Amino acid sequence: MYQGKKVLLRALDNSDLMASLDHMNDYETMRGVTSGLILPSNVDDEARFFSAQSRSNRGEYQFAIETLEGRRYIGRCGLIHVDWKNRLAELAILIGEKNARGQGFGTDAVDVLCRFAFEEMGLHKLSVRVFAFNTAALRCYEKCGFEREGVLKKEYFREGKFHDVICMGRINE
Question: Over 100-145, what HEC string results?
């Protein structure tokens, strides 16, 4: 539905369910994107998430990411915690297909999502929190015009130690 140079953002559908479930159950994928406990998901968990993603859901806008070269579902991205009064939201992205990482698909998806947020939704600012060890994500956001706004020291506990979280933002000007 929304196209970039490398990806298409479209509605999540049931054909994406099993690939998404594989992504949610991959420790290496999840360690870089979730601050909570990484617990196994089952088909019912993922189906509940998918069923909550519809056009009528006005607090969160999630998209499936597929490549223009024909890879059907490589991950998902979206805007969460939309604050309509202040015209801001948090951005979230997950490239779950490992062999799709490092090829610019995530950067293109973030660009398309920012365009959607600013030009279609009329938002003023997007923010994102990135674990300091997730250097690929930090590079991606910086390429897409996000600036570092602050550091939450020792905010995130994973694998026996605390890690910093980098707060980033992009203002539509």
Answer: HCCCCHHHHHHHHHHHHHHHHCCCCEEEEEEECCCHHHHHHHHHCC
